[in-house]
Amino acid sequence: xxxxxxxxxxxxxxxxxxxxxxxxxxxxxxxxxxxxxxxxxxxxxxxxxxxxxxxxxxxxxxxxxxxxxxxxxxxxxxxxxxxxxxxxxxxxxxxxxxxxxxxxxxxxxxxxxxxxxxxxxxxxxxxxxxxxxxxxxxxxxxxxxxxxxxxxxxxxxxxxxxxxxxxxxxxxxxx
Length: 175
Known about the structure:
Elements: H1 9-25, H2 31-44, H3 52-69, H4 77-91, H5 107-119, H6 121-137, H7 144-174
Helix pairs in contact: 1-4, 2-3, 2-4, 3-4, 3-5, 4-5, 6-7
């Protein structure tokens, strides 16, 4: 059986307001604590009875955590803050729908993650391209000179991807 629904602009706005409240509530929280909280939440979830839609979105939380913890990617603060905010919402057991409610408790988290993943699709694609480029470079060389060049090549690619990402966002915001 397939059940679908459409979010009206007012519905999306309610989610954005909830996200803003979440962001404001943890302004002073440490990124590391937020990431650890998200990991703890992931570890404690029992998603066996959750709808596939929910499970598929929740799986993306690990991807976000990996991106944040990737020192070579070194996500700039303005992008990092958006990812952290999504993790804060995900980690809050008392968000729009209490996570303690069987089956539907994670539905709002899945919807929020879907909205975030759509909004940040270009960031996630840039990270995927970065990881693919890193794989093409192979293992980090043992020889210092080669390792230095390896790191420089990776850094250049990161800079290119983030510059394109920011330029694309500026163009979209100008429209």
